[in-house]
Amino acid sequence: MSPRWEPNPDIRRGRSVVYTLHAHLVFTPKYRRKVFTDEILTRCEEIMREVCAKANVELREFNGETDHVHLLVHYPPQVKLSALVGSLKGVSAHYLRKEYPDHIKRYLWGERFWSPSYFAASCGGAPLTVIKEYIENQKRPD
């Protein structure tokens, strides 16, 4: 008896594409200041979930420490990752400064909340060595 095929919930379909794209993102506040409390991290996650939902992106995981946050996002190919990052950082900075002005002013000054840089890594799926081997072993047409 053959095993029953289970559909992969990570694979999504569009009009002309089948995809599963995940990225691990890390953002740090300007000067890597220790601005985040548990309450501010919780609010930051809420804001970022809303931004993702509006962009048709799923925020799979969110966590952080006093000086940085981690996100795992599942996004469609039409979403430009750098534009998503800009929206996540811009909208969260706006609301966090507005909702926690006294706390944030103790750690950050000027206009910037986030450092202009960020970390992004593609993730999920098979390891690169497995994909490389799969491609190498594809039969060439005669």
Automatic annotation (TrEMBL):
Q: Which InterPro entries match?
A: Transposase_17 (IPR002686), Transposase_17_sf (IPR036515)
Q: Which GO terms describe its molecular function?
A: DNA binding; transposase activity
Residue ranges of every copy of the Transposase IS200-like domain listed in the record: 18-138
Q: Name one GO biological process term.
A: DNA transposition
At the top level, the lineage of the source is Bacteria
Q: Which SUPFAM superfamilies match?
A: Transposase IS200-like
- Name of this chain's protein: IS200/IS605 family transposase
* Gene that produces this protein: tnpA
